[in-house]
Amino acid sequence: MSRLIPQEEGIAVTIDNLTFKYDQAPSPTLKGFNLSLPKGSRCLLIGQNGAGKSTLLRVVGGRHLAKPDNAVVVLGRHAFRDTKLNMVRSYLDMDWGMRTVSFAGYGVPLQADIAVKNMMAKMQAENPERRDELTELLGVDPEWRMHQVSDGQRRRVQLLLGLVRPFDILLLDEITTSLDVVVRQDLLQWLRRESEVRGATIIYATHIFDGLDDWPSHLTYLTANGATGWQGRIEDLQLYRTLRAEGKPALLNVACTWLRDELNAQRAAKHKEAASGESVHENALKPFESGGGFAPGRLVSQLDG
Ligand SMILES: Nc1ncnc2c1ncn2[C@@H]1O[C@H](COP(=O)(O)OP(=O)(O)OP(=O)(O)O)[C@@H](O)[C@H]1O
């Protein structure tokens, strides 16, 4: 199916009251989640382990079908059903380097005796400038053979192949973990240029905030129960501005504040539950669903209504 869906001018990703539940799971991972991201934004996705960041990226990446059917619109297209999106959308996660067989469509044995220059050779040949730029930036040797590289080198090859084709939407799931610090910094700068010069929209889920303070244009906080936390332009977040003015590591402290508050609320709820013998999980997390004190700069959320 390929049919344009009306979307607000200048917006790249619209998520409206998204709910997603894994088949075997007792309850939904994502509940009433909303997001509106402008084209050219670099959005950092923050949330505790298991909050649903990877799930959200997979939904936006068209790997899971969510409810309601039109909940996720990417560049005016249905995130799951519109296969045309696959020409302009890239999704990179940690799975690649761990598997012996690549993700669907490429069929490349990632740890087989194959040279980097022969992997996705057509796509590399079609984008020679990007290939050369990324090859240098990532320090990839086209002669490397995939059965002889380290985890970090395999990750660099993944990035080369995942980024070589120009994208309008890029979804990154904790992808920089095994990169050394210099390559990581260079890559972040390259990604910044992609958004500033080509207008690409990037969503990046990570727990590593080192060196990221200047990078995102937007933040999205996914609460522990898969709902919308604070989101908006980073400069609209007072806590971030204060920390920057004080010369403190801003993103690390913002994330710590949010996640610490959330953890304390979860622990308090558990204690209350133990004391009363009732289940109070859902209610315990409500403060975060309604902003939890981080409302300024937040974008549309139907949960407020
Ligand atoms: N295939 C699956 N089937 C059932 N449940 C799943 C599946 N994948 C993830 N989950 C569950 O969904 C929830 C969210 O997982 P997800 O990987 O999206 O979280 P995350 O925020 O990316 O976590 P982390 O920061 O640890 O990577 C978790 O409770 C997880 O157990």
Output the CATH homologous superfamily of the largest domain.
P-loop containing nucleotide triphosphate hydrolases
CATH topology of the largest domain: Rossmann fold
**Tally of DSSP helical segments:** 10
Q: Just give the CATH class of the largest domain.
A: Alpha Beta
Spans of at least 5 consecutive residues whose pLDDT stays below 50 are 97-109, 282-305
Strand count, sense and barrel status of the largest sheet are: 6 strands, mixed
Number of strands: 10
Query: How much is the radius of gyration in Å?
Result: 20 Å
* Name given to the CATH architecture of the largest domain: 3-Layer(aba) Sandwich
Coarse shape: globular
Q: What order do the helices and strands follow?
A: EEEHEEEHHHHEHEEEHHHH
- What number of structural domains do the residues give? 2
Query: What is the terminal-to-terminal distance?
Result: 33 Å
Structural class of the helices, strands and pairings? alpha/beta
In round numbers, the mean pLDDT is 86
Arrangement of strands in the largest sheet: 6-7-8-3-9-10
Bound molecules: adenosine-5'-triphosphate
Helix percent reads 25-40%
Percent of sequence in beta strands: 15-25%
Biased composition (Basic and acidic residues): 273-284
Organism: Tribonema minus
Protein name: P-loop containing nucleoside triphosphate hydrolase protein
Keywords: ATP-binding, Hydrolase, Nucleotide-binding
